[in-house]
Amino acid sequence: xxxxxxxxxxxxKRPVYKVVVADSRFSRDGRFIEKVGFFNPLLPKEKxxxxxxxxxxxxxxxxxxxQPTTRVARILGENELMPMPANGNNPQKAxxxxxxxxxxxxxxxxxxxxxxxxxxxxxxxxxxxxxTExxxxxxxxxExxxxxxxxxExK
Length: 155
Prior knowledge:
Layout: E1 2-11, E2 14-23, E3 34-39, E4 51-53, H1 55-63, E5 67-68, H2 70-78, H3 97-122, H4 128-154
Parallel strand pairs: 1-5
Antiparallel strand pairs: 1-2, 2-3, 3-4
């Protein structure tokens, strides 16, 4: 399969990319079919020298079935050579996985709370409140057991 992708050049910590048409089986910086542009991420977004594309050749390769990578698709979308791809924004990505699970359980609790309030307004399920209080009482017992276990290990 043909891909429109970036091929890295430049030196350490000073990347410059070529936009190339290559077979997807070739290595990133290896053999390619044609160079169709360049991308310099170190320059500010306002400068014209940051991105250079050969529009006619890119349209030709897209017509031949070449698929752009996500980064190249964004670059082409910004230069109006193809429709802008869907926004891949993932606000959960910055949150550590452990915290994501906790937030998900909090959301579930928040959803259950309005249901419980609705049940109380109906007057049908007033027994649920003592059950939650009983669960709170059980938690200190479990903690007391945990405290006892280290004492046994010290002996």
